[in-house]
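Deliverable D4.2, example record:
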Amino acid sequence: MSATVPQKFIKPLAIAAALAFLYFTVLRKLGSDWWTDENYSHGLLIPFVIGFILWQERERFDDKARPAMWFGAIGVGAALFALWAGTAGAELFLQRISLVVMLASVVIYFFGFRLLRVAAVPLMLLVLSIPIPQIIFNRIAFPLQLFASKCAVAAMSFFSIPVLRQGNVIELMPLGATEPKKLAVVEACSGIRSLMTLVTLAMIYAYFTRPKVAQTSVGDGKERAQTKVYATFGFWRFVILVLAAVPIAILTNALRVSGTGVLAHYYGTRVADGFFHSFSGWVIYIVAAALLFATGWVLDRARVIFANTFRVGLLPDQAGGSPPLNKMSEEMVGQ
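Output generated by the structure prediction step:
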């Protein structure tokens, strides 16, 4: 008994095989970085999330799409040039960005711009999982280190703890100590790791809990206008959640560093190392995730008020909150 591949899957599988062959070296090195670089370890989950999203949206990739071959061909050419330039110049970031450009261009070439909007979230998730150049990474991480150290000094001063800051190094006198001790807010304590991960989580959370809009082909112009206005709420909810993840990650990390500084005064600098350091990182990340989900909850409550104010109909499973995973439907595509 032989298994046959459905006709509609042949073209996507052929495209995937060709891209895998073309970008094999790039993908192998990217996977290695995900495995070894803790700042981007969340990338190990991204292919599975992207696959799940695309599988749910598989019905959209049909023969009714309107391909934009010229735009797609131009994008493919640009991606190939970027891949060649990145390979010749040994620039990994350029090679990896060329993969994103190639995927977007292939979607445009075969399916058109409408389907590109379906693939927008998977492409953004892929971009967030690509390690940025080290020079840019340092330009982001060091200011975060300084901000966290300033917050720690402010918190310790609030508790009347003598402290001195020199850059990202905090000097304090633990109780019972005979000489000052130093705490360095190093790159790992900058919060950039939790920032990258929380922004990715915000994007995934916003996508899978996007609101539905009751759509109907009947009704007067006013009702259709109100429905369209309400439909844009899903887009702005997505944007707000992703943007909110940035200050949430930065402030919760500053809280972690501040708490570590205060505890170091009473229990010694050993609290900044080992188990407590790792455990506090997990606890703070859970707090950050909870704040992100709370932001989504507030936006959902605002959605209900918005709907009642403008008398826009909600679907039954939307009256109380975000949709479950098995009841997701169209959102920002084709509105």
